[in-house]
Design a protein that fits this description.
It is a single chain. The protein is mostly beta strands. It contains two helices and 28 strands. The protein has one domain: Beta-galactosidase, Chain A, domain 5 (Distorted Sandwich), CATH 2.70.98. The strands form seven sheets. An eight-stranded antiparallel β-sheet has the order 9-10-11-12-26-22-21-15, with no helix packed on it. It has a seven-stranded antiparallel β-sheet with strand order 6-14-24-23-20-16-17, with no helix packed on it. The longest helix is centred in the C-terminal third of the chain and has 6 residues.
Length: 361
């Protein structure tokens, strides 16, 4: 906006930016800086803790690419997504995981709203609070999706509200998730993951030579069985030199939250979500072990990704196992979430709905 009040203190917001050709918005308060790629899925590309200059989101080795200016050399429905995957945090809809087909439509990897431009407006702009409202419509399924990102002065929490609407005239299933990749400055072997209980489900099949987990294992958090028969504490983060690459799913959480705390930095990231909507957390474990395309051993990150459904094998697999979310004609579903960057000494005991973090000291 040409006549926007350009404050230098308090909460601030601007959608008058471009980054690598993409319309971009920036939200800030005294504690957090949030960068949103409006023209690429309204992805959250940066979430920075300003007092310590700590970035909590991971970035891919190639960074941001404008899908409209990039001509891939093949039409693989997996590569088309990966070639423009910048890391960070995507809204995933209507299908999570690998390509599949539904109702005569091919649905690619993590399709489809995070590779398309969204509309956006500044919904609130005061020194006390700022909000950015973004929306889009899918093109191979009849969904309307809207998300609003808000920051309040003095708060370490980014508030997110997402709403899905089935604009079709028949019931339509989907997989809906928050594809949150953590890394940046916050991830190393001093980190610990905290969860309110739950059950571990390892991916059903070995999919890479660098898998360390026993395929198909199920058991209570935090202990998993390794491929070699050993016992593995899933709360702990291996270093990059470990060269592991695994995928697990977390189910039956008592409450809707998780936390990652770096005990060396005494800084953590927590996420609060409605567990009645997002019944699973996909736990992507990329500890330097992703050899071959597209990682080539360069990546060190995790994904802790609340999803309606599992596994990461696409919409058709979720339909077949009964975990897909089905919306009736005209039905809407809303999820209210918070991402909080907090200071703590060690493991987290709980995160309250208002974002208050209690550690185990």
């Amino acid at each position: 906006m040409h006549y926007q009040n350009e404050r230098t203190s308090g909460c601030r917001i601007s959608d008058a930016w471009t980054y690598r050709g993409l319309r971009t918005a920036i939200l800030e308060n005294d504690l957090l800086r949030v960068v949103v790629l409006i023209d690429k899925g309204a992805d959250i590309y940066q979430l920075t803790h300003k007092p310590t200059d700590t970035e909590v989101l991971w970035r891919s080795p190639w960074g941001v690419r404008d899908p409209s200016r990039f001509l891939p050399t093949t039409g693989s429905p997996t590569s088309l997504w990966l070639d423009v995957y910048e890391g960070g945090w995507q809204t995933v809809l209507p299908a999570g995981g690998y390509p599949s087909s539904y109702a005569g439509a091919e649905v690619g990897l993590h399709a489809e709203v995070n590779t398309m431009p969204w509309d956006a407006v500044i919904a609130e702009d005061t020194p006390q609070r700022v909000s950015l409202r973004c929306w889009a419509r899918t093109y191979r399924t009849p969904f309307y999706v809207r998300k609003t990102l808000s920051l309040a002065q003095g708060s370490p929490s980014l508030q997110i509200e997402e709403t899905l609407v089935n604009e079709g005239e028949e019931p339509v299933p989907c997989v809906w998730g928050q594809h949150i990749a953590l890394g940046g400055d916050i991830l190393d072997e001093h980190c610990v993951i905290s969860l309110p209980g739950g059950r571990i489900i390892n991916h059903a099949e070995e999919f890479h030579p660098n898998n360390r987990l026993k395929a198909g294992f199920e058991g209570p958090w935090p202990w998993s069985e390794g491929r070699d028969g050993g016992r593995i504490d899933m709360r702990l983060i291996p270093p990059k030199r470990a060269r592991f690459n695994d995928q697990s799913y977390l189910a039956d959480l008592a409450e809707g939250w998780y936390a990652l705390t770096n005990q060396r930095l005494k800084l953590g990231f927590g996420f609060i979500f409605p567990k009645e909507v997002f019944r699973y957390i996909w736990y992507w474990q990329m500890f330097g072990g992703g050899f071959g395309y597209p990682w080539y051993g360069r990546t060190y990150n995790i994904g802790l990704e609340p999803f309606t459904s599992y596994p990461n094998l696409g919409l058709q697999a979720a339909i077949e196992n009964g975990t897909a979310l089905t919306l009736e004609p005209g039905q809407s579903v809303t999820a209210e979430m918070k991402a909080v960057v907090f200071q703590a000494e060690g493991e987290v005991e709980s995160i309250s709905p208002d974002g208050t973090v209690k550690d185990k000291r």
